[in-house]
Design brief:
It is a single chain. With 223 residues, the chain is an alpha/beta fold. The chain contains eight helices and twelve strands. Helix 3 (58-67) links the parallel strand 3 (46-49) and strand 4.
């Protein structure tokens, strides 16, 4: 699971990232321009978004995201606590609204709730595709009821494919989501890992479900 946290108070931003990093992969931004750029990559499962951020405020960032057809769940995390602000945040396309100061446990619970509602996280912290089941917290995997070993990156790759089954994912999206913007590898690593993942799934017959979209990327077929 990958989150984007947007907050212009840098000590608070660092604190939130540290809080969430034990459960999620976390990217961060401290202004509206960077937040919009990262959100447009469409590689995150949810966004934690402050309202009062430089360059473009959080309400406007979300309006632009939604106008471009992006359905990423968004949790506003802000000191603006008036009823008018709450209504504005939800009407602009927000999925939840949490006022600062907040309790760490509540923030994580609300994020998990967003992920469950969006289908990224089930109530037992697992996701499924046909006979494949991934257990996010433990990063275990079973195929047709039998345990299977994957490396950390292979697991993240399969997780991303399952979360977006039926959708074409570009190599750039996969690279940014699994390896990150600051990785010192090249985009060619995507093909290498896709080959290895298919080999792992081949004994179970699921390798053929990962389709290569020539010149674009890959797609996991719908169940």
């Amino acid at each position: 699971m990958r989150l984007l946290v947007v907050e212009d108070n840098l000590p608070l931003l660092e604190s939130i990232v540290q809080l969430l990093s034990d459960e999620f992969e976390v990217d961060q931004a401290s202004n509206g321009e960077d937040a919009l750029f990262l959100a447009r990559q469409n590689i995150h499962n949810a966004i934690v978004l402050d309202v009062m951020i430089p360059e473009i405020n959080g309400f406007e960032v979300l309006k632009l995201i939604r106008s471009e057809g992006l359905t990423i769940p968004v949790l506003f995390l802000t000191a603006r606590d008036s009823l008018e602000d709450r209504v504005k945040g939800l009407d602009s396309g927000g999925d939840d609204y949490l006022v600062k100061p907040f309790q760490a446990a509540e923030l994580k619970a609300r994020i998990r709730a967003l992920l469950r509602r969006s289908g990224s996280l089930t109530t037992n912290h697992s996701i499924q595709y046909r006979g494949i089941e991934l257990f996010g917290k433990e990063r275990d995997i079973t195929v047709d009821g039998k345990p299977m070993k994957l490396t950390a990156k292979q697991y993240e790759l399969l997780e991303y494919l399952i979360q977006n089954k039926g959708a074409i994912l570009t190599k750039e999206q996969i690279y940014d989501r699994v390896w990150g913007f600051d990785s010192d590898t090249t985009i060619a690593i995507v093909e290498v890992f896709m080959h290895h993942l298919r080999k792992k799934l081949e004994p179970y017959g699921y390798h053929a479900d990962i389709k290569t979209i020539r010149g674009v990327g890959y797609m996991l077929v719908e169940e």
